[in-house]
Write a structure and sequence with these properties.
By secondary structure, the protein is of the alpha/beta class. It has a domain of 263 residues: TIM Barrel (Alpha-Beta Barrel), CATH 3.20.20.80. Helix content is 36%, strand content 13%. It is built from 16 helices and 11 strands. Strand 10, helix 14 and strand 11 form a beta-alpha-beta unit. Helix 11 packs parallel to helix 13. It starts with 8 loop residues before the first helix and ends in a 16-residue tail after the last helix.
Length: 415
């Protein structure tokens, strides 16, 4: 994995909370002019794959104590979470996941460090088969992540392995891997994060190995390869940084740059079907820094391109909050409510996924523990699987979401 000085998602999550954000018009670059507006007649349109008809008997109003997936589906939203095989070997967590999730985001098991741990390794589907089978047997949809990313390779890949390939070798590697993986899970994976984190404030990132070895066409070609391998799958571009400013980087610029890139892809007929919004949120002064009107405008602009929207990696970084668990939990719940009450007004949000269900398995504690030693508490359940205020905030926000016709219905609805 290459260590770059430019800001990555992980750098973003570690950033100190910035000053209060200025108000920006939706999808407008700071100090600049508006991006393509919702009234423009020439906005390119996505063409989505067809899906099975919705079973009406799955959409009845859920009971007050219903699991999250049922509460969400009552408003036409699919709720789920990330998970990995090593986490699900914990029987207590597995039971919690089976109860709460309608869609499973593959946290580890479809990353390259699992599938192809070295450049010379054959593809190994041991763990990916297990996680997909777990979801399918439990009637859950699967969100496969990530086919193309500049991280997720593991220690078996050196900088030279990634950056030293010639164009043909890189092209053959990326296309053969996408084709083989997507074909293997045709009909079993409902959506793919085809390309992850390839955009910065200025457009397509240039500091990634695929750009360096192949050029910007790797993005379009990756989507075309995935569609050829499974025409029924929803193909997603996934990224972060749309909610609040951080380290001098402007959320409005990231929103505008993403729309620009998506417009270019759609105008060229590239089969992009949805935008995945990671939504890793900073708790410190979130309500002051989050411009809900601008954010809703961005979501509307995405939807007007015919794209579905998935919230893919929702959690809350609790830096800047007190160590006291009760105070932190209340503040984190407020962040969930503030964000979801704004986002879920957009009826083209098809799914909401948290990046884990329990604090026992949060990547934030694993990779970035708090400096005061207090355990991270970013998720709906604590590390003993007990519900927290964040669960109530999620349930309330999902139940209050704008009604919509669901794009998908998990198979567990009819089980």
């Amino acid at each position: 994995m290459r260590l770059d000085s430019e800001l990555t998602r992980r750098g973003f999550l570690l950033a100190a909370a910035g000053s209060a954000a200025a108000a920006f018009a939706a999808c407008t670059r700071s100090g600049g002019t508006s991006a393509v507006t919702s009234a423009a007649p020439s906005i390119p349109q996505a063409v989505l794959p067809s899906v099975s008809p919705v079973a009406a008997d799955c959409l009845t109003q859920p009971a007050s104590n219903a699991p999250l997936w049922q509460a969400a589906l009552g408003r036409g939203v699919v709720y789920g979470s990330s998970a990995a095989t090593w986490q699900l070997s914990d029987g207590q967590y597995r039971s919690l996941f089976e109860r709460q999730a309608g869609i499973l985001f593959t946290e580890d098991d479809l990353l390259w460090w699992r599938l192809k741990p070295t450049p010379r390794s054959k593809l190994d589907f041991t763990h990916s088969d297990q996680i997909v089978d777990f979801a399918n047997k439990n009637g859950m949809l699967v969100f496969g992540a990530h086919l193309v990313w500049d991280e997720g390779f593991g220690d078996g890949w050196t900088d030279d392995d990634l950056w030293g390939m010639d164009r043909q070798a890189a092209t053959d590697l990326i296309h053969s891997t996408i084709d083989t993986v997507v074909r293997r899970y045709q009909g079993k994976v409902a959506a793919w994060s085809v390309v992850n984190e390839a955009i910065d404030d200025n457009g397509v990132r240039t500091n990634v190995p695929w750009y360096s070895t192949i050029g910007p066409s790797y993005i379009a070609d990756s989507f075309r390869t995935a569609q050829a391998a499974d025409p029924s799958a929803l193909l997603v571009y996934n990224d972060y940084g749309y909610e609040t400013d951080f380290q001098g980087t402007n959320a409005a610029d990231k929103r505008a740059a993403t729309l620009d890139v998506l417009d270019g892809l759609l105008a060229d007929g590239v089969p992009v079907h949805a935008l995945g919004i990671q939504a890793h949120l900073h708790a410190a002064r979130f309500a002051d820094r989050f411009d809900a009107d601008a954010y809703r405008g961005f979501l509307s602009d995405v939807a007007q391109r015919g794209l579905k929207i998935l919230v893919t990696e929702l959690d809350v970084l609790d830096d800047g909050l007190p160590a006291d668990a009760k105070q932190r939990d209340a503040a984190i719940a407020d962040v969930y409510a503030t964000y979801l009450n704004a986002a879920l007004q957009e009826p083209d949000i098809a799914a909401v996924m948290t990046f884990g269900l329990s604090d026992r398995y949060t990547w934030l504690q694993e990779d970035y523990p708090r400096s005061d030693g207090a355990p991270r508490r970013p998720l709906p359940f604590d590390d003993d699987m007990r519900p927290k205020p964040a669960l109530s905030a999620l349930q309330t926000s999902l139940e209050a979401a704008a009604d919509r016709t669901p794009y998908w219905v998990p198979q567990r609805c009819s089980q």
